[in-house]
Amino acid sequence: SATTFTSNVAPLAEDSSLGSPIDSSVSSSILPRDAELRSQWIRHKMGGHHSQFTEEQLKDYQELTYFTQKEILHCHKRFSQLDPEAVKINANAKLPSRKIMTLPELRVNPFKDRICKVFSSSKDGELTFEDFLDMMSVFSENAPKSVKVEYAFRIYDFNEDDYICENDLKRVIQRLCGEQRLSDDNVNALIQKLF
Q1: What is the pLDDT of residues 95-110, one digit of tens each?
Q2: How many Å apart are CA 141 and CA 29, to the nearest integer?
Q3: How many CB atoms lie within 10 A of CB 67?
């Protein structure tokens, strides 16, 4: 469920087992002031990933998400771990939904395909790092409830007509019930109570 996913994403961004890309004991005042040197330092601390984030890019990501720079770097590391070769070859790699859906937080989610599609900028379920970061940010603890509700609506709007209709609700109920499917009569009775 979206709640389960939300409760698991924040720890993912802060997971110390992923290795800290930036040593928090190092004061930013002793980091190189030159932008290129800072960028090289960040790449070095990230283990040589080809992300090549500049300080400006990190600040932009921070302004556009609900993450700190450290959490952004953790998200990038997690994204890179899904397909290290693809990300190493192309910093703008798009990972297929089948790779994204291997995340423990998505693996058992009945809406994993819809989540990937909604967050895919190309609407094909493939995610760039920016799409991935957007997804992680929306499901983080720091994202406002209004943002979470907007994305939940989009995930449940299967026919993408900007309206949750009876067919959308039927699909939501069927996915939530999984193998313990309700009869069509029971599903229709539930839907009629909502409309």
Answers
A1: 999 999 999 999 999 9
A2: 29
A3: 22
